[in-house]
Amino acid sequence: MFFLRYLCVTLLCSIPIVVVLPAHADDEPEAEKPRVWTSADGRKLTGTLEEKGEDWVKLQIKGKVYTLKLEKLSKEDQNYLKTHKIRKPLQIRTELKSYKDNDLEQTVMTLDVEFTNMEENSELYLLVVWISKKKSDQSSGSVSIKEKLECFYDRDGVYSHEASFFDNKNGDDFRGWAIRVMDMKGKVLTERASSAGYLRYLKTVITRRAPVPPEEDE
């Protein structure tokens, strides 16, 4: 049965669409800043921490990255590196896939959203809006929201979100997608869509679980 069902599934997209979506600069976690480091023999240098290991560290100095043994740094800097966690900007990556299920006469769209560099003990709210047009409606203004998904994620990972579009005459055609990512303080980190014109649907969709910014004291 599984084999027969597998034969009924026809891939539509052999090359997925991949877009890297950095969060807004004003709202993303603060990245590493240049710091004054001291060598074991007392010399000073200014560099930005890139990576670190058990006995090594990578510093960016004047645009170039250098790998240094920890023993080359002062004891104070070595102790600093033992407890310091490298801060990197939040990155959001999307990948759109689709396949045609001839058995159920539908096209299934999958939007993978990948979060990288999430802060520890933090959580993000994701709103996904699918946009479609009824096959039976020939008017130009018939594009609308098919459905929405509201999700919360607390760690780095790739998360899949699906929507089905039926291929019969009473079904609907896929038109696009839009997403909004917020932190738990209600700040919008990014809004993106498959087409810039579809961002407007993020303003009209009714949400029930979105974080609300705290009221400012008057």
Model description:
By secondary structure, the chain is mainly beta. The chain folds into 2 domains: 2-27 and 90-204, Immunoglobulin-like (Sandwich), CATH 2.60.40; 35-83, SH3 type barrels. It has helices spanning 2-7, 75-83, 201-204; strands at 9-11, 17-22, 35-38, 44-52, 56-61, 64-69, 91-101, 106-116, 124-134, 143-153, 157-166, 172-183, 188-193. The strands form 3 sheets. Strands 1, 2, 7, 8 and 11 form a 5-stranded antiparallel β-sheet that branches. It has a 4-stranded antiparallel β-sheet with strand order 3-4-5-6, with helices on one face. The chain has a 4-stranded antiparallel β-sheet with strand order 10-9-12-13, with no helix packed on it. A hairpin with a 3-residue loop joins strand 4 (44-52) and strand 5 (56-61). The relative contact order is 0.16.
Record keyword descriptors for this entry.
SH3 type barrels; 9% helix; mainly beta; 4-stranded antiparallel β-sheet; single chain; 218 residues; Immunoglobulin-like
